[in-house]
Amino acid sequence: MASRPRAKTxxxxxxxxxxxxxxxxPDLKVSATADELLLAALQSGGDAKATGRFLMTFKExxxxxxxxxxxxxxxxxxxxxxxxxxxxxxxxxxxxxxAVVFPEIGVALIGGAAAQEHSLTAxxxxxxxxxxxxxxxxxxxFAADVNPADYLRGVMRTAEMIYADLGDHIAPRxxxxxxxxxxxxxxxxxxxxxxxxxxxxxxxxxxxxxxxxGHPEFAGRSFVTNTFVGQPVQDLHGHGTxxxxxxxxxxxxxxxxxxxxxxxxxxxxxxxxxxxxxxxTQAQILAGMNWAIAxxxxxxxxxxxxxxxxxxxxxxxxxxxxxxxxxxxxxSGNDSARPGTIAPAGAPANSPSIVSVAAVDNALRIASFSxxxxxxxxxxxxNVFSSWPRPNLHNTISGxxxxxxxxxxxxxxxxxxxxxxxxxxxxxxxxxxxRHLPLPASDVGAGLVQAP
Length: 452
What we know:
Elements: E1 12-13, H1 34-44, E2 50-58, H2 63-71, E3 77-80, E4 99-102, E5 107-110, H3 112-117, H4 122-128, E6 132-142, H5 148-153, H6 159-166, H7 185-189, E7 203-208, E8 223-227, H8 239-248, E9 267-272, E10 279-281, H9 282-294, E11 299-302, H10 312-323, E12 327-331, E13 355-360, E14 377-380, E15 384-387, E16 394-397, H11 400-417, H12 424-432, H13 441-444
Parallel strand pairs: 3-4, 7-9, 7-11, 8-9, 11-12, 12-13, 13-14
Antiparallel strand pairs: 1-3, 2-5, 2-6, 4-5, 6-10, 15-16
Helix pairs in contact: 8-11, 9-10, 11-12
């Protein structure tokens, strides 16, 4: 069950609320949904990639001072993720708050009107030389890079079209495929079957579109769930169920279904940060990251991205994770059309504190769609068989989204193998033990991830 806030959200307020700027729309509040923000962005004619809200990233070690500086601004209504049980903040439940703080990662979300009213701009913060490192636009996030206008028009499309939006190239699956005994090619390439470890005692958090909590092949497993998008955790999209299947699925599915899961005994944390249509905002993603770090998840897997430069908020979250003994692993993106076009890794994978994952095929060649540049490691990402919401139970799809949970699952096995392998040490072990591939590091990083 998802954690719930302790009764009402506590708003930390200094003084009475000042009138909202006339030009600011109420759907730029921190409680607005992704679709409301997207509609407002399209209607305004501005940057359709940005939500109209802002993210303030505090300097390292200055979160408390940063919170005090926000509290000192008369009329600014401030909510805090700590006002929710286990920091499972629901932005929709923050009411009329102008800002919300994610204390584990040192980031605050600021409403568009509040930023304008309180002069929270990059220039003003630089002049103050206070606890804030930067203030940046908040961006929309998707399970793949799609045009926001096209996305909005397609929110109610059929499942087939939604899958196409993923950018994770779905291959038709013959019914006989599910009856193949053994293991998937990806698990074999990562040497998972020979590993003596299964993820016991390791918390693995997957931030995605949720999970099919009634999937029969996960009966009896331990789940901790929370939604950050105002929808139930139950996955009506498929992407989240597929990625959780690879990272944490069963080692021996019933019947003659091949093994597709790596950390089969791990404790699964399901953070729904993308809606059933595959959309979200940067703040919803950060809220999930904050929650995972607060809950000491050793491995945090994120098969999502946006085509924007490295974001200070994601870099801060990655650093906070490393300091807390957690490791964030993210998909580099599926925007390339090799050999002609090699797109750069998107956010959050392009942050230096986050492990960026590329995709290879079963011949260990770089996938045509895999983004390059800031890449740390590669995983199997072409024609990957894994779990899928009922009634299908399984599906075979492709993408760096599928490569990422291979790395996350192997990371959980390494974490179980040695209690000292946490945070930066776990990252170093993953890279040091990767199988070298005769490909540029800008394509595959250290090489193909390997299990202990």
